[in-house]
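Suppose you are handed a protein chain with no further information: no name, no annotation, nothing but its sequence. What can you learn? This example shows the usual starting point.
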Amino acid sequence: MKQSVFTIESNDRIAENTFRMALTGDTSAFTRPGQFANIKLDGFYLRRPISVCDYNANGLILIYKTVGEGTEYMSQLLPGGKLDLLTGLGNGFDTALSGENPLLIAGGGGVPPMVKLAKTLIAEGKKVTAVIGFNKASEVYCEDALKKLGVNVFVTTADGSYGVKGFVTDVMKSLDYSFFYTCGPLPMYRAIRKTVRTEGQYSFEERMGCGFGACMGCSIKTRSGAKRICKDGPVFDSAEIIWEEPKK
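A reasonable first move is to predict its three-dimensional structure. Written in structure tokens, the prediction is:
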């Protein structure tokens, strides 16, 4: 983990309620795709954890949805502004487990980290397929970014207004793959675990108090005990997760 001040280069709307922010600054703390940043916003008590879409030696890309006061405030920030970030948080995805034909599965706000993951896997010589799901056409983003990397991309929308009508699991059933990586909401995970045919890794989205393991506010049950999503995760192997049935 490293604390640094970044400069906003751009902050543009790319889909319904979704923005892409480019920042320049020190990214040396990042070592794996799937790690995240924790952003300090003026006037807000807690930092905001945001997954990282992509990064290089000069800066990083954040893609975020406006779902509350904090992200709404972020959407109004202008180029030239400064942001205090904690970087290199979380464990990230392990690409050594991928096999030759990994499958990336993401829904909604879980799509951004798939870009850096896909870029890393393709650089390692892997043949990558991605299935990304949204509610409707106006929410679709990152399709072109993934295709430009050479990823075989399938897009699903719940209302059928773009791509395949249905959910990510509807496409997954007909695909062959060696390993899977996924990021998205918990209901999607419950459907995925009943559909996948290989081992994989889940990246959990969760509200976080501190973002670096001090408060135990974002724990998950695993076969080796409770683990913190922010510090021990957010990525967990499918075999170690203890799934709890939703309360009725």
